[in-house]
Amino acid sequence: MLKKISFWLLVAFYLFAGANHFVHPEFYDGMIPPYLPWHGLINTVSGVLEMLFAVLLLIPSLRSKAAIGIILLLIAFIPAHIYHIQMKGCLTGQPCIPEWATWLRLLVFQPIFIAWSWWCRK
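Above: the chain sequence. Below: its structure as tokens.
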């Protein structure tokens, strides 16, 4: 039962997160490190992939591949977390957060999200 609830929460989380890239693109734009080109494209592709992987989780034969896709996205987002740490929690167009929270996101929540996706792959 716990795994089923966790699975549905994972699907809902990534559907919401992916859609949020389009509802609030300015929020994500500030997270993309300035050394990366095409911020708008990176934001759009990230949102599309999050929603696509969420939908693919619903197809049992593709669930494992979708979970691995989410894990790869989470790994791809690590430079954004490092950039947030380098900026001491203050990104353009966003309220500042405590620096310890930026470390928490990278060192605690990223691994939890990766483990969550891995656990729901079957």
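Residues 90 and 96 are 4 Å apart (CA to CA).
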